[in-house]
Amino acid sequence: MSRYSDYFSFESIRDRNGEVICYHVTLIGTIETDGTATMRTDMGANQDQKMAFGRVTIHGLDKKIRVLLNETNSRIYSHTTDIDGISTDVISYTAKDWRADEAYEYEVGDRVLLEGRAYIRNASNRNPERLPELSITVTGLFRLSKARKKRFVSMNEGLIPQE
User: What percent of the chain clears pLDDT 70, i.e. is strictly above it?
Assistant: First the structure.
């Protein structure tokens, strides 16, 4: 049993003809070292909008994620499996305007819930053989828990009294 309680689900939004318009994704994961958000403030037509770009890490849910990737013929930022067979998936996300401010405040170790639309970014100009990357444009984001701070450890904790 995994020590992580991560979550990933998606649903397809279809039009009247049954064609998929978009995918709505909900996930719970952890912000890890390479996932802290970076902020750009020169976005939009007037160069006055903000966007945060980050990554969230999800453990042990690769089968659910693979279903979405197979349907969209895309990939995520990274996928690894450790020696115990637990998979680790890193998914990119973007947040705009006030959501960007919230995403920028997330720290390493924070548990977050993200929901939004899945978008496919085509990188064929850089590497034509590589599949396009699936990322999430956030419509809702919540910090479920803050990163644990290290407890103060006394310098004298390991001392043994003399006899």
Answer: 88
